Structure formats: C-alpha cells, structure tokens
Amino acid sequence: MAKLKPCPCGGPDYASCCGPFHAGDPAPDAQRLMRSRYSAYVLKLEDYLLATWHTSTRPASLDFAGEKWLGLDIKKHRNESNTVEFVARYKIGGRAHRMHEISRFVFADGRWFYLDGEFPASSPDSLPPNSSPPL
Ligand SMILES: [Zn+2]
C-alpha cells in the first residue's frame, strides 16, 4: 500500500486533498480553493496562486519571503458572501506570526478565484471593540 503524503492544509492525503486542484481540477467551493491556495503557499506554487487569483486584483508575481508555514485553521465559510475566514500560522526569521484574514472569492467561468481579503483587528491581547476599560 502506498504511503499517504499528508497535505500541507492539514488533510491526511495530499493526492486526494489539494493535489488534484494543483494539477488543474477546479475547486468545488471557496473553502476548498482557500485550502489549496494555502497548500500552494507552503509548496511555493506561484503559478497556481496566480492562476487562482482574480484578474482584477492579481499581482504580477509573488514574493515568497522565506516564511515557514505552520498550520491553517478555517474559522468560517460563508456561502452567501463567498468569504472564508481563517487563521494561518507561520514563522519568519525564527519568529512565529499569525495571519487572520477574511478572504473574498468570486465564481467566474466555472471556477473559483481569490478576490481580496480583509484583516479583522483582533489579536489575542486586544480588547473586543465595545468593551470599556476597567474603572
Ligand atoms: Zn489539502
């Protein structure tokens, strides 16, 4: 029996997880595209990342800054707004960081594309927006 190769996005088997999308299959929904794009960052698949980026927001090229990706957590997938909220953890220069993003996706010509993202202002040590300081 062939040994399974774990998928960078956290799936048990790359060949049946993000592998087929990297090989050209269209992702069936925004969340699967999001996972496959995270895996593509881990594997530095620049062509795949650019190909799944909507032309209106796509950069000319990507710069992989030497980050080491540590893991992906999908927080929320909203079908009605085509958004996926996630937290990705990575290390750069030995320091750990966390990226919290709400990504927007669009469906065009039978495929999903990454459009853009916003970064909710929440970090573990920041106060919730409407909490008042202790008196
Ligand atoms: Zn995967």
Fold and architecture overview:
This protein has 135 residues and is of the alpha+beta class. It has one domain: Roll (Nuclear Transport Factor 2, Chain: A), CATH 3.10.450.50. The chain is built from 3 helices and 4 strands; from the N terminus they run αααββββ. Strands 1-2-3-4 form a 4-stranded antiparallel sheet, covered by helices on one side. The longest helix has 14 residues, at 30-43. Zinc ion (ZN) is lined by residues 7, 9, 11, 17-18, 35, 39.
Features:
135 residues; alpha+beta; Nuclear Transport Factor 2, Chain: A; four-stranded antiparallel beta sheet; binds zinc ion
What would you say about this model in short?
The protein is α+β, with helices and mostly antiparallel strands. The chain has helices spanning 19-22, 30-43, 46-51, and strands at residues 68-78, 83-92, 95-108, 111-118. It has a single domain (14-118), classed as Nuclear Transport Factor 2, Chain: A.
